[in-house]
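Quick question about two entries, pasted in order.
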Amino acid sequence: MKRRHLPIVLFVLVVLAAPYFLSDFRIALTNYIGLYALVALGLVLLTGIGGLTSFGQAAFVGLGAYVTAYLSTVHGVSPWINLLVGLGLTLLLAYVIGFVTLRMSGHFLPLATIAWGISLYYLFGNLDMLGGNTGISGIPALKIISWEIRSEREFYYLIWVVLLLAMLAVRNLLDSRAGRAIRALKGGVVMAESFGVNTPRAKMAVFLIAALTAAISGWLYAHLQRFVNPTPFSLTQGIEFLFMAVVGGIGHVWGAIAGALVVTELKQRLQDLLPGLLGQSGNFEIIFFGIAMVLILQWARHGLWSLILRLARRIAPNRSWRRPLAPSGPLPRRSLPASGTVLLEVKEVSKYFGGLAANQKMSLNVKAGEVMALIGPNGAGKSTLFNCISAVNPADGGEIKFLDERIDALSAREIARRGMSRTFQHVRLLQQMTVLENVAIGAHLRGRRGVLAAAMRLNRTEEAGLLAEAARQIERVGLTEHLFDPAGSLALGKQRIVEIARALASDPCLLLLDEPAAGLRHMEKQALAELLRKLRAEDIGILLVEHDMDFVMGLADRVVVMEFGEKLAEGLPQEIQENPLVLEAYLGGVE
């Protein structure tokens, strides 16, 4: 048995053995912990990994509960059919809600989730067909073939099997091409889109998954309780679900169980303890949880599971838990244009920010098998031009062609699909992810498998190929020893090299490199220059922005100089070094 599987096996054994040692009360409490963890699991994926905050998950729990309660009591439909109907209705409603709310950013998205959470809660309580505030009773027990699940102990196994299967599916998803796309959401839409990630689709996927896990929890709850009313599906409960995810570890799958366990147990203890201490009854535990939330966000914002992992890595070094890469052959490569072919044409491109002309009628071209350097003083508009070319900030005027096709109206991911890749002036890596995983994001467009295939682990062959390709590019840039290190642990210069490896993983024919040598030491710059020469020899075109003139002049085939958003000069490196206008711009005069 592999060492990384040991915690999972131990946990399964504990779950199987628990009913033989726990009292009836403890079994009932553990059932609720499992139901809450199922909702918190969706929030771990949605909020902790996808970066989308939701306070309204309790409403989806209510939707799953009310669908099965109504259909089974009023129409006598089988609970298992009700589950399918409930999931279908949840998907439809979540898609409509997500289509409207996921376009929002900042504080608007959490406020929108509060709004629809409250709306569904009051809908449950005001529809006579759903029993109003009184609710629906007489919900039938679940039956598997001839076995009727009635007791708390029988339900225990069903709840925890469903939870463990959901956790396995989420773990499989995160360990995949689709999972890296989801994790990239938190690191910034600009970077993700530049490597072909469809960020609106990724946001919708995590929103739907979180809604489905909540609806399944509601379905189980309804048949466990045999009664539903609106109270458990209020906004307060939605906040408590989010609190569980934060306490357990908002970025960790196992944090869902840890948070549900701690919050449920603590709430139970406080309800027994606080009235005796304060001399009166009331929901005083809410005050305690409010204070605890503030302290956790201040001092332990990564949650309990992060502390557990830190302790485990002290006991067993992290290197011993690493999974070896599966062997895989090289991925198919695009055919590169012949040397000298014009890859990129920029004609009179302008970009304005209010009254400021960041680029004014800029023109240049880049050919296959050459290094074109774009230089100029700080604020000259070099990075702005990069952003116009790669559609991060589309141009306001002019024409941009790539491989003889106009691209100035295309999205960043469509441009990436055509064979253009880039790095950024300010490093955009996912700091907590390994170097390997960051580089594998660059190969996103070289895979096809989606969320469902990943969750069911049907993507292993493709995934092995993508990771092997990422490892090859990391070796190519000389960072093999950092393969499994968190990207944020590397020095800034090496992080820039990781960005180059990520760009190469997309199999580009044109590279846009924004200050790749910044932060590198002398020997590292020499190694980078040698790498770029090799890429040029492979007929890859390179457009380079850099301030290190020794690096540029020893590498570039042609140089374009910018000043105040306009082209100042263009020519061979020697010509640029002797150009009076360039000397004036850089040094204040020829003398």
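Here is the second entry:
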Amino acid sequence: MLTISQVSKAFAGRTLFEDASLQVNRGDRVGLVGPNGAGKSTLFSLILGEASPDEGRVSLEKAATIGFLPQEHAPAGEETVLELACAVSPEVTKAQRIMKTTPEDSAEHHEALHSFDEHGGWQLEPKAKRILAGLAFRESDFDRPAKTLSGGWVMRAHLARLLVQEPDLLLLDEPTNHLDLESLVWFQEYLTNYPGAILMISHDREFLNQLVGSIIEIAHRRLNRYRGNWDSYLEQRAAREDQQLSAYKNQQKEIASLQLFADRFRAKASKASQAQSKLKQIDRMEKIEAPVSRERTVHFRFPQPPRSGHRVITLKEVDHAYGDLVVYRGLDFEAERGQRTVLVGPNGAGKSTLLKLLAGVLPVQSGAREIGHNAKVGYFSQYRVEMLDAKQTVLETARDMPNPVSEQTARTVLGSFLFRGDDVFKTTAVLSGGEKTRLALVRLLLDPPNLLLMDEPTTHLDVGSIDALVGALAQYEGTLIFISHDVYFIRAVAKTVLHINAGKLTPYAGDYDYYLDKSRATSARAALTSGEKLHNLQPVAPRQEVPAGGAPALQKTGMRETREQRRAAAEDRKAEAKIKRDYEKSARNLEMQILKLEGRQRELTEELEKPETYDRGGAATQLNRELQTVTTDMERLTAEWEKLAETAGPNSAV
């Protein structure tokens, strides 16, 4: 369906591709990998026709359609979320716009209705609603103007549009960046049955392992194909590099031998022709390149925090609720020095709330939060990048701290997080979302707390940056509590697991694989969202031997009744769990919005308390207006919380 044939492409004086070829057939599931700057985005531009190859050709099967989801930015206008999800063709989009802006009794409106119907518009809506729901949109969101959504939710709406459209070839650039865990699980399952071909760039190794049938690596300006998923690719790449290194060394020995003969006998008349022949033989060789060394990302000993007391932080009899919606009641929690704990559980279970209570971002409504001796708390959230000063350079930002490190030290650490050369002189204003996340991590690791709380730290990070973070945390001597949906990262970092569901905490004194074994999870990803009361699982009773004559009829009947009772109870639990999941998903969405508004409210209040704010003409007025808007939005969302709580009943909790 897609053919890339002997393509060469140079950009800014650097050759990205040279005689590169690739074939993607219908139904293929392909992961595209390579280091930053290797040319992944350029390859997408060539496929989309936004750029032209210097040599070779890129061709798409006649009438085949392409859909593309960029990594960070996508447009949003006056159309509603549902209209955006249904905007699968120019004809449908035009008809939607006319239907929205013209009188219902006008000829133009009737013509638009006919066009909308002709292009299957009415059939698109039910499909769009199902997909939007899978991506965690509420029904009340469907009629909201898309431009009122945050950037991440706009990206979800565009992802929904592509899934509704079902193009023959789906190009996805880091599609999981803007998804919460349950949406990611839904999306992963949806793609397993996607009818078209998929070519994706992703840092999520578990996502690639579950979905792709081959990996395309950009290396040595070529497109090298490996059959299988991510883990299979790593094995095959290592074997290929060993073979390439062996072939390279053998060729270098041969070249050295030929060159030695030529150098020795070039000036000797009787041997000059032979010497010249050896030089020509060297020139005619197809040179084998040395394999690119896979350097470890982190080569630097990171600063370490001061040692805390044995008991780092304690929550005692803590209650927390959003309006009438109870998250925790009588919560007890304690973290000890050196623990590395991942929080798992379904959306809305209270994972982020617990992390915020520990961080002090949320005040304790009842009970006590006690910080241990010499403990210093640091909190890294998905919104931390908003705290960066847009006017500072990357290097200035890395050193802007109470105890600044040397420029050489800062540049070394920045380099391990892929800020190299002149990149350190960029202002933070021009950085991408992933670059800002990496920079915020650098700041945290250069002046680390001894209690580190992290909420989805790998979002927007590429594979190299995730490895850098894993390497840094391997050196970290403090206490770590984190939330992540990256299975690779969890396995590399976590030593214990804390399962959270309906305000109840269940600790597992082992790593993530230990937790998987004890929870009897169906998959490593699914276990992150499990809402079952895992600690109530009973061990399987040993099988009893039955006498040769058979068991008495009453005993058989009793066993059959027990099985039927267990089956009925399981079905009841399943139905209850579904209701709870639906409720928790809605509750979690509201929680995220409310907490973000609370954070912005604090920031605005702090700005208005500064005397210098009133020296900037009009700044105070603008900040007051925004504060009023934020307060109004918080009141509206809190009212939705209360309504949700009344509907769900008093015993429900997130």
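Reply: Residues 553-609 form the longest helix (57 residues). The radius of gyration is 29 Å. Hope that helps.
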